[in-house]
């Protein structure tokens, strides 16, 4: 079996076209959504992701605002940037690019974001709404990567109801929150969250209908871990130096040979990453439409 591709690049492009139409309709009424970013330091991945977010904004007609801080920025410097974006009427939503350098308290930073401007859906108020609302319509921003994974699968005609999903990794942007979305009544999957304290991760993986690999360990999921016909989402990214060329290249959490066992697989790059960015834009547009009905 060779897996079919869950094409995040093409799906994100389709979503961006839909969003561009909605942004034009807002603009016709004098409403211009504005996305802010807070970037601390020069981590190459973070620099590239933030640049991509601003390129996306330009593509769909969303204004962008940048707060770029040096790697040695203090907690007070980061909080001052947050306060500026909270107060800026041109900024209708913003994100703080993660991870933050050691020494900056990430949770304190996330909690300082105005929940009404939380474009990442990571503020405790917005995560709390997800905890409470299992069957109601959600009118607050959703965490971008989890929302992007579900959208990617559903836009390929796959129904997740009744499926057993095994998630690898309990990080802030994916593992902690994806179960809240997958177990909503409109999705109806069953979720097992595995992590570095799980006794036998391989045993869980082998039973999964769907694997969400967000461990950040290159090539962690191998063909012998995957049930034939499973759906595999490759989320984690590692920058691995090629010993022959000395150049760094991106590697996902999933060994490419898994494509010989799975029914569906998301490439990495070109899978979940572009969907994360598309969902961020969707959160910004949704918020602007809710504020200006
Ligand atoms: N505040 C946040 N920080 C982080 C998040 C997040 O959702 N919010 N997620 C990740 C990084 N991330 C978004 O910020 C992200 C990751 C990957 C991509 C992407 O488009 N990747 C491309 C490859 C890009 C490259 O070549 O470098 C792909 O997969 O095709 C976008 C966003 C952690 N931080």
UniProtKB/TrEMBL annotation:
<keyword id="KW-0378">Hydrolase</keyword>
<keyword id="KW-0511">Multifunctional enzyme</keyword>
<protein>
    <recommendedName>
        <fullName>Bifunctional protein FolD</fullName>
        <ecNumber>1.5.1.5</ecNumber>
        <ecNumber>3.5.4.9</ecNumber>
    </recommendedName>
</protein>
<keyword id="KW-0658">Purine biosynthesis</keyword>
<comment type="function">
    <text>Catalyzes the oxidation of 5,10-methylenetetrahydrofolate to 5,10-methenyltetrahydrofolate and then the hydrolysis of 5,10-methenyltetrahydrofolate to 10-formyltetrahydrofolate.</text>
</comment>
<dbReference type="Pfam" id="PF02882">
    <property type="entry name" value="THF_DHG_CYH_C"/>
</dbReference>
<dbReference type="GO" id="GO:0004477">
    <property type="term" value="F:methenyltetrahydrofolate cyclohydrolase activity"/>
</dbReference>
<keyword id="KW-0028">Amino-acid biosynthesis</keyword>
<keyword id="KW-0486">Methionine biosynthesis</keyword>
<feature type="binding site">
    <location>
        <position position="237"/>
    </location>
    <ligand>
        <name>NADP(+)</name>
    </ligand>
</feature>
<keyword id="KW-0368">Histidine biosynthesis</keyword>
<comment type="subunit">
    <text>Homodimer.</text>
</comment>
<keyword id="KW-0560">Oxidoreductase</keyword>
<dbReference type="InterPro" id="IPR000672">
    <property type="entry name" value="THF_DH/CycHdrlase"/>
</dbReference>
<comment type="pathway">
    <text>One-carbon metabolism; tetrahydrofolate interconversion.</text>
</comment>
<dbReference type="InterPro" id="IPR036291">
    <property type="entry name" value="NAD(P)-bd_dom_sf"/>
</dbReference>
<feature type="binding site">
    <location>
        <begin position="169"/>
        <end position="171"/>
    </location>
    <ligand>
        <name>NADP(+)</name>
    </ligand>
</feature>
<keyword id="KW-0521">NADP</keyword>
<feature type="domain" description="Tetrahydrofolate dehydrogenase/cyclohydrolase NAD(P)-binding">
    <location>
        <begin position="143"/>
        <end position="290"/>
    </location>
</feature>
<comment type="similarity">
    <text>Belongs to the tetrahydrofolate dehydrogenase/cyclohydrolase family.</text>
</comment>
<keyword id="KW-0554">One-carbon metabolism</keyword>
<dbReference type="GO" id="GO:0009086">
    <property type="term" value="P:methionine biosynthetic process"/>
</dbReference>
<dbReference type="InterPro" id="IPR020630">
    <property type="entry name" value="THF_DH/CycHdrlase_cat_dom"/>
</dbReference>
<dbReference type="GO" id="GO:0006164">
    <property type="term" value="P:purine nucleotide biosynthetic process"/>
</dbReference>
<dbReference type="InterPro" id="IPR046346">
    <property type="entry name" value="Aminoacid_DH-like_N_sf"/>
</dbReference>
<dbReference type="GO" id="GO:0005829">
    <property type="term" value="C:cytosol"/>
</dbReference>
<dbReference type="InterPro" id="IPR020631">
    <property type="entry name" value="THF_DH/CycHdrlase_NAD-bd_dom"/>
</dbReference>
<dbReference type="GO" id="GO:0004488">
    <property type="term" value="F:methylenetetrahydrofolate dehydrogenase (NADP+) activity"/>
</dbReference>
<feature type="domain" description="Tetrahydrofolate dehydrogenase/cyclohydrolase catalytic">
    <location>
        <begin position="6"/>
        <end position="120"/>
    </location>
</feature>
<dbReference type="GO" id="GO:0000105">
    <property type="term" value="P:L-histidine biosynthetic process"/>
</dbReference>
<dbReference type="Pfam" id="PF00763">
    <property type="entry name" value="THF_DHG_CYH"/>
</dbReference>
<dbReference type="GO" id="GO:0035999">
    <property type="term" value="P:tetrahydrofolate interconversion"/>
</dbReference>
């Amino acid at each position: 079996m060779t897996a079919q591709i869950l094409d995040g690049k093409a799906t994100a492009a389709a979503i961006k076209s839909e969003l561009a139409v909605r942004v034009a309709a807002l603009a016709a009424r004098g409403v211009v959504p504005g996305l802010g970013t807070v970037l601390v330091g020069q981590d190459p991945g973070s620099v590239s992701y933030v640049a991509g977010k601003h390129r996306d904004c330009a593509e769909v007609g969303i204004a962008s605002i940048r707060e770029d801080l040096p790697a040695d920025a203090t907690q007070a410097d980061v909080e001052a940037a947050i306060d500026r974006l909270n107060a800026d009427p041109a900024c209708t939503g913003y994100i703080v690019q993660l991870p933050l350098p050691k020494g900056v308290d990430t949770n304190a930073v996330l909690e300082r974001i105005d929940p009404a401007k939380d474009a990442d859906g990571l503020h405790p108020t917005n995560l709390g709404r997800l905890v409470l609302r299992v069957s109601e319509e959600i009118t607050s921003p959703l965490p971008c990567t989890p929302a992007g994974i579900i959208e990617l699968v559903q836009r390929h005609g796959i129904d997740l109801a009744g499926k057993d999903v095994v998630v690898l990794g309990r990080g802030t942007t994916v593992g902690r929150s994806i179960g809240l979305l997958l177990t909503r009544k409109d999705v109806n999957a069953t979720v097992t969250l595995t992590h570095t304290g799980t006794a036998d991760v391989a045993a869980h993986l082998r039973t999964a209908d769907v694997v969400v690999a967000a461990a950040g360990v290159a090539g962690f999921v191998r063909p012998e871990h995957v049930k034939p016909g499973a759906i595999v989402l490759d989320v984690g990214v590692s920058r691995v130096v090629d010993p022959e060329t000395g150049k760094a290249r991106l590697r996902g959490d999933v060994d490419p040979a898994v494509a010989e066992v799975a029914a569906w697989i998301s490439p990495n790059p070109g899978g979940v990453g572009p969907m994360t960015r598309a969902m961020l834009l969707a959160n910004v547009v949704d918020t602007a439409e809710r504020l200006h009905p």
